[in-house]
Design goal:
It is a single chain. The chain is mainly α. It folds into 3 domains: about 200 residues, Lysozyme (Orthogonal Bundle), CATH 1.10.530.10; about 60 residues, Membrane-bound Lytic Murein Transglycosylase D, Chain A; about 60 residues, Membrane-bound Lytic Murein Transglycosylase D, Chain A (Roll), CATH 3.10.350.10. It has 19 helices and 6 strands. The strands form 3 sheets. The protein has a two-stranded antiparallel ribbon with strand order 1-4. It is globular and about 65 Å long. The N terminus is likely disordered.
Length: about 375
Amino acid sequence: MKFPWTIIVVVLLFATLTNGYTNPLSEAPAATITSFKRLSDEVVTARIARINLPFAARSSSQVKAMIRRYTVEGYRDSEDILGRSAMYFPIFEHYLRLYNLPEALKYLPIVESSLLPDAESPLGAAGLWQFIPSTARMYGLKVNGQVDERRDPHKATEAAVRMLASLYEQFGDWSLVLAAYNCGPGRVRKAIRAANSTKFQVLKAFLPMESQHYVPRFVAAAYLMNYYSAHGLTPDYPSQELLDTRTFRLGKSLHLGTAARQLGVSYRTMCRLNPSFLQGMIPASEKGQYVTVPTAAATAFASLYLPALGNTSRNGRQLSSYLTVPGDDLETLAALFACKPAEIMEWNGLTSPRLTINQSLMIWLPRQVVRP
């Protein structure tokens, strides 16, 4: 009688595969699973209410399912998201304040890209805010073989905020704005007509399935960012040189590899801080390109690549420096430093009045002004 060797092979293969398999829930911290099991709809609704979202939100099966995904099954990815938020949330907050939009919209890129500027979708969307090329160009972003500004955290964020502001002008309801951001304003208007209602909870049945889940995913993302510690999660922060940075506006061309060597910074770091330059080359630009470097290399960058201003006084003013904070614009700074917006642009060689977060500026201070 021949022994059935095929059975042995199958058994051994199964044992090999199952031996390497681990249930993702078994790896989650016990405190995380326990804290989720204790979540009631009342607790979730009360916590959501404290987040100050721009629309009424309550607990639902969809919201709780997404919270579970963030805090239990995908908790490791969530800890990475929490860490990356330290890099990108200040940028989001800056542009949201400039356009006077709700700060809670900063949670939207968590849903879109998990805060990964290199994220790409099968449909061709890219960047933190997941613009498709046609929409990106509609809002002034360059997309070509050399530069993809959908991946620029600064320019893409301003474009997304402008788009959100435009959608709010159309719908006047932030839950509808989020749905329109996902599936387009045309489909939302069609759903409004079909449901004969402008309430998201009524018309969502007429939206694509992904869009029906989009608002609950946004609510769950906001919940994660505000209550992660209640689930035993700890942010996994990027390195200090990625967190502590300065941003400059550069008009001339420069290769990131050259800058990396001259600044003593790794090329990988320069690429991670400037993901929109696809081939490592910063092209010359009349309006200037945002270039971000570690703070430790900021002085060297300014000395090597920016016009020298000197340290002598000018019309009784003393040269100093200023680092922009969220919401800063030229008019505000001009009032603060008793000068004209055009003077700040001249002092810094700026050809565009737009400022971003952590942007290093040289300011000629009047002697009676104390620098903040």
